[in-house]
Amino acid sequence: MYLTWLDSNSWLIEIGGQRILLDPWLVDSLTFSGQNWFFKGSRSQQRPIPENINLILLSQGLEDHAHPPTLKQLDHNIPVVASPNATKVVQQLNYTQITTLAHGQSFTLNQSVEIKATPGSLVGLNLVENGYLLKELESGLTLYYEPHGNHSSTLKEIPPVDIVITPLIELGLPLVGAFIKGNKYALEVAQWLQPQVMISTAAGGDVIFEGLLNSFLQTKGSIEEFRSLLEKNNLSTQVIDPKPGDRFEVKLEKRVLNV
């Protein structure tokens, strides 16, 4: 398996001979409802749009996961798998092949990769978006992705997972608390899933953040602190802190999985 972190929540996942573009933000700035004064993310350099994409996978409908300017530039004939809220975004952009996954539902990509939706991030008061479990059908290799660190207790019921992509550092606001949950939440999912590898996501990378909200954001923890936390809890999980734009191979030991 090869992975490329494209900053923020955006990933290119190469698994089972398929190229999956996950939560892509690749062009222009990132704002919410066009309110630049409140929050704006800008790239120090534009990311080239990857070629030969087999699937676009969207975990949420918010702009930092279903980024309209990026989705406008991508080929609208590329199949999309999305949460119900993200489906609304790609429907408005006239994508031609959309599969909506509710929690517990699965989709199989070209008989090679199974994608299963899990309960993910809470948005607002009652909207729970998607996390995803990806399984390479030939080898049984598995990957779990949840971009805000909201890990459903239903994950306890599944077998060990090989790779987990999730925040390892917390990001929050005074009085409100963490809305990107790392640290102890990442440790908890590591204890549940026993991954061989954990990879940090949702960090800034090469992104520059501005606006009123950014002046109040607080970070907690570090990659090194999380590695120490794993060691203290007798977990041998390898932690990868990716560099934006770098394609890297995730090498795993073979183990018997009853998946």
From TrEMBL:
Database matches in SUPFAM superfamilies: Metallo-hydrolase/oxidoreductase
Protein name, UniProt field? MBL fold metallo-hydrolase
Query: Sorted alphabetically, which PANTHER family does this protein's record hold?
Result: METALLO-HYDROLASE/OXIDOREDUCTASE SUPERFAMILY PROTEIN, METALLO-HYDROLASE_OXIDOREDUCTASE SUPERFAMILY PROTEIN
**Pfam families, per this entry?**
Lactamase_B_3
Name the UniProt key words of this record, in alphabetical order: Hydrolase
**Gene Ontology molecular function terms on file:** hydrolase activity
Positions the record marks as coiled coil are: none
User: What InterPro entries does the database record attribute to this sequence?
Assistant: RibonucZ/Hydroxyglut_hydro
